[in-house]
Amino acid sequence: MTPTMTMTITPTMTMTRTMTYVRRTILAVMVLSLFSCHRNESEGYKPTPYEIETPAYFPNEKNIPDDNPMTEEGVALGKKLFDDERFSAQAEHPMTCATCHHRDKSFENGGYPLNTPHSMLPLINLVWNKTGLGWNGGVGSIEEMVYLAAVSPVEINGDTTAIAQNLQQIDGYPEMFRKAFGSDKVTFANAQRAIAQYIRSLVSCNSKFDRYLQGREQLNQDELNGYLLFVTEDGADCFHCHGGGGNALFTTNLFYNNGLDANPNDPLDRYSVTGDPADKGAYKAPTLRNIMLTAPYMHDGRFSTIDEVIDFYSESVKYSENISPLMHHVMQGGVHLTEQEKQQLKAFLNTLTDTSFVMTQD
Fold first, then answer.
1. Distance from C-alpha of 303 to C-alpha of 147, rounded to nearest angstrom
2. CA-CA distance, 218 to 111, in Å (whole number)?
3. pLDDT mean by block of 10 residues, the chain; 362 residues
4. In what helix (H) or strand (E) does residue 39 lie, and over which residues does it extend?
């Protein structure tokens, strides 16, 4: 016969069971609380996809990273940050992107002296750029460009932690961050993403030349003659590097040694990025859209007017062993336009100014 087993419940065992129950209850409450907080934080996070509307002749494929899709809320937040000088988080040095990038100058700075290695490039139509940013293409993405501008000692000269903490304390920003990214906790990474979204939204596509292509406006004879000079090799021969006709961006976004110097030695040219000797003295061909608003010209701002640029390509191109093979007229020093042809080319370039874009107050 098997003896009957009995168990004595001691006060210690009772206390242990009670504490275990309490711990489990507390853990369950914490889990539910975290779930509830997460649910409440994400509640209402339904960002609206942002659609970029362009004419049919613009490129279809855009450079929008998978981890930063464009939304109406993200673009709105990015614009506010782009314009808000409190972004720098420095009362003695208030500064943001718009401090230097002015809309009426096609988001360039209009020649105001800056202590930066190269002159400025306009922030337009960058959503189609896939070859790196800046004159030498050394910046990999718009997000990276925003970060570099924020911390550069010759630009905003900010601290990313201080920027986020400062924005967290400004009325309106936590809610805008929640709507754009699902959390009202301000982070520099999300600020960076929002500004990048806004910059991708800066599309210029309503110049007189666009309206001509759409049959809504006519070019005069000088403008038409200038266009023919632009797109022919025995004319001004501009189209190889700057597009035109079938290239609505008016840039290939590629890099060329265009004959500025006989002995190029800039430590920040394309060669500094690629290490390819063929890239010595090479720089990105900037878009010619709104070109009449973005003086000074070239990577070092050496030309103050568009007339100086046209004169350079006409008579002052210099040969070097690294010059682009597309500079077909280098052995003659340039394309040698007549004064009338120079004025016609300039007349065409004027048709690339998108007044509605640069005057928008959004």
1. 29
2. 32
3. 41 42 43 40 79 95 97 98 97 94 92 76 97 97 97 95 98 98 98 98 97 97 98 96 87 98 96 97 98 96 97 98 97 98 98 95 68
4. helix 11-42
Q: Which two tokens stand for residue 259?
A: 């004959």
Considering the domain boundaries, does residue 2 fall inside one? no
Q: Which domain holds residue 184?
A: 72-200
Residues 6 or more apart in contact with residue 233 via CB below 8 angstroms: 328
- Rounded distance, CA 159 to CA 140, Å? 21
- Indicate the DSSP class of residue 244: B
Q: Do the strands 255-256 and 283-284 form a parallel or antiparallel pair, or are they unpaired? A: antiparallel
* CA 278 vs CA 52, 140, 333: distances in Å: 37, 21, 20
d(CA 114, CA 91): 20
227 and 312 both lie in a single domain:
yes
Report if residue 233 sits inside a domain: yes
Give which of 72, 27, 37, 22 is closest to 185, Cα–Cα.
Answer: 37
List Cβ neighbours of 166 (8 Å cut-off, separation of 6 or more): 86, 89
